[in-house]
Amino acid sequence: MSTGLPYVDSIAFDYDPEAPGAPTLQRRSLLGPDEIGHARELLAEPGAIITGVAKVLDVSTQTIYRHVLGRSRTA
User: Fold this and answer.
1) CA geometry: angle at 34 spanning 29 and 39, to 5°?
2) Which pLDDT tens digit goes with each residue over 10-44?
3) CA 48 to CA 41: how far, in whole Å?
4) How far from chain centre, in Å, is Cα 26?
5) Which residues are CB-neighbours of 38 under 8 A, at least 6 positions away?
6) What share of the chain is helix, strand, coil (3-state, %, to 5)?
7) Stretch 64-75: mean pLDDT, rounded?
């Protein structure tokens, strides 16, 4: 980061990303219909906050804004 070059995990930790057994980033899939419904139920409860619902579902607050509340990045 001090050099101003983009961060590349394979360079920083000296491994070949194409090699068998190379580490991969495991990303969580988007919320499914059941999780979205559950999030909406949680948000409807008195005193519910987006941060709390995000913690319950183990997602970011941005995921709640985008996939549950339907707000775009620019909203």
Assistant:
1) 90
2) 777 777 778 887 777 666 667 889 999 999 999 99
3) 10
4) 11
5) 57
6) 45, 0, 55
7) 81
